């Protein structure tokens, strides 16, 4: 950060405090602070970058939209979803104006707004936006593509959060069919959809289907990330519950034991990367401007 501060001082003296290049450096300083979880320090820097871009480039310029999105993402990191929503809405409008309504960048911005609304339990609004992003991705990337699979997975997660488990099953199955074709049925994204599907089956008390989904997901994650992966804790635990519902108590105890062992290993190592954490970064990352 000291190097950034020295560079900022030099650039301000050379170009003036309200030059767009100064705003870019300020934005990147804020992104670094946000990555370090120093959100209170990042906030005024993002706001300063936005102000400079608005004054010098206009409030519809792509760089202003990027700084706006970064500020919204900071609020999301703080779990202040109410504050994030209007900023994401404005950023989405600016992206659509810049790229056109049918564009993958617009679909990505739509998805992020949908996720925040889902966090606020505004499920109808969220589902409408997820479906809009899905349609855009189908037009831009093709119906059998990674972005479309991601959209079906997102929609399944939203249905699951809303308690619409039958609808969640349908969406997760669509995601799985596409992911099998484009990424293979041994990929971590495929396992991620299996875990979501398994959770829906659990809520529907379809224990055999839940066992099949979780067992397949566990096997994929163990092969891909190893036996101590953070992503194993939840599916192992739920797999044990489903097995016990079927009277398969010996298998249930073994999976429960493995879940506890993974949890303890993670605690000793101070955490790890999970699919949930990776997903959050993918949908709410701050943007460094070059």
Automatic annotation (TrEMBL):
PROSITE patterns in UniProt: TPR (PS50005)
Keyword terms: Coiled coil, Cytoplasm, Cytoskeleton, Microtubule, Motor protein, Repeat, TPR repeat
Predominant place of localization: cytoplasm
Coiled coil is among the record's keywords: yes
Subcellular location: Cytoplasm, Cytoskeleton
Repeat positions for TPR: 65-98, 149-182, 191-224
Keyword match Cell cycle: no
InterPro entries linked to this entry: Kinesin_light (IPR002151), TPR-like_helical_dom_sf (IPR011990), TPR_rpt (IPR019734)
SUPFAM superfamilies named in the record: TPR-like
Homology family: Belongs to the kinesin light chain family.
Protein name: MalT-like TPR region domain-containing protein
């Amino acid at each position: 950060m000291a190097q950034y501060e020295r560079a900022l001082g030099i650039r301000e003296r050379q170009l003036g405090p309200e030059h767009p290049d100064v705003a870019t450096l300020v934005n990147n300083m804020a992104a670094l602070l946000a990555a370090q979880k120093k959100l209170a320090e990042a906030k005024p820097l993002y706001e300063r970058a936005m102000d400079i871009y608005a004054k010098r480039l206009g409030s519809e310029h792509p760089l202003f939209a990027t700084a706006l999105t970064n500020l919204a993402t900071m609020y999301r990191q703080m779990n202040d979803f109410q504050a994030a929503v209007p900023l994401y809405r404005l950023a989405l409008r600016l992206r659509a104006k810049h790229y056109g309504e049918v564009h993958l960048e617009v679909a990505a911005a739509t998805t992020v707004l949908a996720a925040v609304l889902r966090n606020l339990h505004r499920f109808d609004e969220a589902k409408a936006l997820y479906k809009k992003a899905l349609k855009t991705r189908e037009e831009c990337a093709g119906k059998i593509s990674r972005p479309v699979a991601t959209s079906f997975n997102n929609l399944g997660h939203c249905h699951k959060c809303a308690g619409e488990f039958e609808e969640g099953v349908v969406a997760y199955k669509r995601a799985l069919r596409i992911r099998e074709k484009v990424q293979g049925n041994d990929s971590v994204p495929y396992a991620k959809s299996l875990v979501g599907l398994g959770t829906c089956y659990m809520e529907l008390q379809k224990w055999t289907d839940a066992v099949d989904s979780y067992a397949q997901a566990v096997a994929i994650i163990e092969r891909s990330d190893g036996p101590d992966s953070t992503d194993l804790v939840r599916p192992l635990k739920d797999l044990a519950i489903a097995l016990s519902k079927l009277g398969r108590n010996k298998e249930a105890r073994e999976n429960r034991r493995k879940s506890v062992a993974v949890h303890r290993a993670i605690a000793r190592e101070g955490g790890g990367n999970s699919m949930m954490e990776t997903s959050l970064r993918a949908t709410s990352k701050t943007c460094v401007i070059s």
